[in-house]
Amino acid sequence: MQKQVFILFIFLISVGHLFAQNHPVAFATKADLLKVKNGLVGNQLLQKSYDDIKKSVDKWIDKDVDVPLPKDPAGGYTHEKHKENYTLMFNAGVLYQITGDSKYALLVKKLFVKYALLNPTLKNHPEATSSSPGRIFWQALNDANWLVYAGLAFDCIHDYLTSTERVSIADGAFKPIVDYFTKDITSWFNLIHNHAVWACAGVGIVGVATDNEDYVKMALYGTKKDGSAGFIAHMNGLFSPDGYYNEGPYYTRYAILPFYYFANAINNTKPELGIFKLRNSILQKALNGALQQTNLNGGFYSYNDALKDKTFISSELVVAIDIAWQVYGPNPAYLPVAKAQGKVILNLGGLAISNALAKGKVAPFYPYTPIEFTDGGKGDKGGVTVMRMGSNKNLTSLIYKYSSHGMAHGHFDKLNINLYDNGNEILQDYGAARFIGIQQKWGGRYLPETKTYTQQTIAHNTVTVDETSHYDGKEAESEKNWPLKLFSSIDSKKVQVVAAIDENAYKNVKMQRSIYMIQLPGTVKPVIVDLFRLLSTSLHQYDLPFNYCGSVISTNFKYNPSLASLKTLGTKNGYQFLWKEAEAKLNTPMAQFTFLNDQLFYTISSLVKDSAEAIFTRIGANDPNFNLRREPSYILRTKAANQTLLNVIELHGGYNAEAEIANGAYSSVSSIKLLQDNESYTAGMVTINGKELVIIQSNKVFDTKAKHQFNNGGLNIEWIGPYAVFYSNQIIK
Amino acid sequence: MQKQVFILFIFLISVGHLFAQNHPVAFATKADLLKVKNGLVGNQLLQKSYDDIKKSVDKWIDKDVDVPLPKDPAGGYTHEKHKENYTLMFNAGVLYQITGDSKYALLVKKLFVKYALLNPTLKNHPEATSSSPGRIFWQALNDANWLVYAGLAFDCIHDYLTSTERVSIADGAFKPIVDYFTKDITSWFNLIHNHAVWACAGVGIVGVATDNEDYVKMALYGTKKDGSAGFIAHMNGLFSPDGYYNEGPYYTRYAILPFYYFANAINNTKPELGIFKLRNSILQKALNGALQQTNLNGGFYSYNDALKDKTFISSELVVAIDIAWQVYGPNPAYLPVAKAQGKVILNLGGLAISNALAKGKVAPFYPYTPIEFTDGGKGDKGGVTVMRMGSNKNLTSLIYKYSSHGMAHGHFDKLNINLYDNGNEILQDYGAARFIGIQQKWGGRYLPETKTYTQQTIAHNTVTVDETSHYDGKEAESEKNWPLKLFSSIDSKKVQVVAAIDENAYKNVKMQRSIYMIQLPGTVKPVIVDLFRLLSTSLHQYDLPFNYCGSVISTNFKYNPSLASLKTLGTKNGYQFLWKEAEAKLNTPMAQFTFLNDQLFYTISSLVKDSAEAIFTRIGANDPNFNLRREPSYILRTKAANQTLLNVIELHGGYNAEAEIANGAYSSVSSIKLLQDNESYTAGMVTINGKELVIIQSNKVFDTKAKHQFNNGGLNIEWIGPYAVFYSNQIIK
Description:
The structure is a homodimer. Chain A is an alpha+beta fold. The first copy, chain A, contains 18 helices and 29 strands.
């Protein structure tokens, strides 16, 4: 590693003298932009995108655009104005290149002149609250956004400016911020984190635009230029070998724009680096991996601190898809996404996509498949699996998360599952508590309830032990370890399975969870079997919530509803936010809870042992500012040392409110049993549609070629591999 | 009236001998269906609709279709099977006519033979709970549904059957139900009510299909055949002269199918009645009025016992639009509706609409306009006004309801308002509590909480006095009176207004409410001023809820949130269902509450007097079966004798979560004052955007030509008509 970096370093010095670039080259080359210009006519989406940009810029021509003294937090005037300004500069720059009309260049220049006067005077922003304060904005991250777009803009008008103007803008507008990043808050700039991706891209693009090789090197290799930080280190460190981004898909979305824009600029100026091919085309894998982690409406899976209204139509994904199309070649999978986006950027990819959309047939959805990601730069820190059955609108997706923590926006959610079906969230992750951009809501920042509730374990569909979150809710501890995948298989259309174990989230309890998604013969929807083993030598309280989305239809047990007053479920670790709407002592051999979501019924059937309770909760307690949505949960509580929870999630029937028809509204599960459960094997039996579904797994031998024999409870079974599924005495594979 | 009926009666006897009809004639004539058949090719929507029907029927050809002994309530097997059967019979009958293939007629005949054996044996349904029990189904209404479709089916296969078969089916399948309706539950059949519309249509269509003039007469004129009941009486009694249906738009939807189907059959057999022209084409007005009372997504306004997921794509509206197109002529306004419906019926209207959709340009939305309806057969029982500004997706609609009660599904909601904006519900009516068709939820019937909560006054955006609903929640009392409209004007694009008074809902309190929707110059969205005068000689508690939909963004006052426990707001009249999430003593001169819904901010600014309180509530208390949605409300509470509430509802700013941009998130209202408020005039002043908006109204002279002078608080104003609106000293009209 050291050696490689050294060789790279020597190589860079040797190519340094080549530097003295034609411009533009960062966003696109002159030749590219000519093709875009010539392609406008007849390519509707490209033309529309161009028209929209032109309209947004033209209204500022001959106007004196305000460059205010930074004052307000996110959502406030100065914040939003500076955001508008960098977008305006970038768009006007591109228009200058496409139209050749100098009024656009002049607009950009005038703004740069103002920034060149303003930026050298700036100290930390008055509303700065983070450890990395900004200058133009409240946080440095936003200053990095500014650098990216302003850099692209400068590159576009480079040749319009005199050399004196170029120097004065580089020194006035850019240098103060670049210096601040690379000399003052160096540790932030050199951190492996999405903020620093933006920072590196910003410094690097400014470097490309202003012919400053020093900036480019710091951007690529960190302030020490030794590869210990910087863009390349980000490409190595933030993604697993299969493109999983450590912070989850919502943040992939955010980071992917600087990744693609800066890589594009580097690709145009240092093609010899082959940046888009690095790590087996890791940027392509990152993009495709993020798209695979969306719901049918394009919404990114909301684990970690995600906001649910963010989808793949966001501008970051427009940029990524359009550049990817250009550098990786045409990919029809992107067309439904591009169609939903309804716009392209004005590069060759945008031109080609616009052309393909006009000509070709577009599938209704991105081609979702079952997919498995490892986490960690080396792929050795757990992972995330998306199990999938069905197709198009009838897709069922279950996300099983056994990844590492995921930095500051990670949640304490080891072995969590989330379920999406028919485009709807069924078992949800709350995501983050935030009203982004809305000043009245804490300046648009992550609300305190993100830490105190949404990140806590009880907000997730996994077990909380003794009302304490995983790793006691300590991020630093949680970063040190991750679950271990025991076995998985997601290639079959009949049985998909993932099993993982966590031995670190709690000191005295090991958690082993296996999720089986099974398509039974003759049925429409898969059934999900959830085998959750809790191993301990001491007595604990185990709470397993199902954060269901939908309306309560029925239970097969009596419960005590809270009628005239409500109390909280607990006092800490997220429990203080939950009202207890009802509770039940479960004494039936099987507890069933059915809810309705949109057009389908869902039933959770649970094996009940002696001490089990069911609790219906609702978010809302201790929320004085109405920051949290009033979402429900169904929590199964048991008290034991060793305990194996066996739950079956059915997706059943159909409801058409328009036609007033409900069918299959009742569960088909009539019994659940554990046939055996010890360190060797766990075997469960579910009677469904009157037939026996048997799931048996090895708890210690995970070799896919190992032979197993099981003889118990009337079953005498042989099979190969860590698990087997039988239905009506037939093996299902 | 008596005389007219008598003449009609004589006329009918004289035309009776003409009876001996060609068949089919009820759904459509042979000639019509030939045109439909010939029109299939090239008319995509018609072809698709035909294909869908054919596919649904073909799978039953040569199968033995079950006609089970009635046993289950709605949602259960026998209920759903009999529903399927009548649809199957009707569809197969139409297919027989179009294709000429006798296999379809045979399928229908076989089913009729089974029903002819079953029906004579039936007593009241074992699950019957209503006062009008059914035989095939749990309630007679569903038996009426069966008659309508089975009648249409019989008509289609009339000529396929031998005369012996015809007699045996008429006597076995139809007569027991018709007799039951017209001899046993006569008072139900003769009631003016949507159930009886179905019953009359059923009996009448069976009459047309089986050449039974006696049935047709009872259907048209009631069992006494004197016009005191029956279909014509429904056309007179259930609609106001401008087509408002007494039970509200959700029920118009339900009743409109039998109205159109039976009218169509009568039109084909007794054209001399000119049934579609009756009361100035009242059935056309009813259809158009129902469509005007939908949200942009087609959802019927949810006042009275409505379910929110019912839209104009429902099959009833497909039938109505397609018949209307045929009998009233082409109407492009229906095309966006037909496009959303995605199907047509196989009649001439369906053919023509399919053709028009293929050829013509279709507007994005039904052409919504401001509209005013009277209520009551003579138009003298109050009414409903829909004020509207904006267009297409940016439409703002405010429904002001001052109608009569609306029968058993009416709510205690005098002077209620509901607000829709940009296709979203902003201030909602809960509608009904019901999971229609879902057996686990009380057999799919209206849930008890419909009476105990959703019909109660506190569930509405109008005043509850002393925690007691209007008319003390007694339907019989509420049916006796209705509010009086004082003045209104909805033609302007700048100012729309409706004022009404209610003197009967409470013994000691008169309620006068004026709603002004005002488009201020230079603004995007209208502002709404709500002037609610409460007149009494004794002290009362006045609660005015705003059942807002959205997320709490901010208040300009401090409140005490309920943190660790919740109590109910009250103990009866709906109050027992509301948790008190927060409360505030208001001591500012103006209270402001801002919430976010989708992409817009909404602020309610309220004039505050001494004793005012604000209460944030949430539905959910005393709801042991989770029958109610957990919706919020913002309730303003005052204690006084005379009290005038002055509230301003702003629709402001914009929020784009995808782009993370919020603008105009703050209210523009800086003060609210009452300049005068007595029996002569009420004058309010709102400072908005730093300018003065003055609204002044006469409280006793409503003549549109009367001159008024007002001299008070520095204002010296003259105007003509019951109200005037000034902004920045300019009158707005």
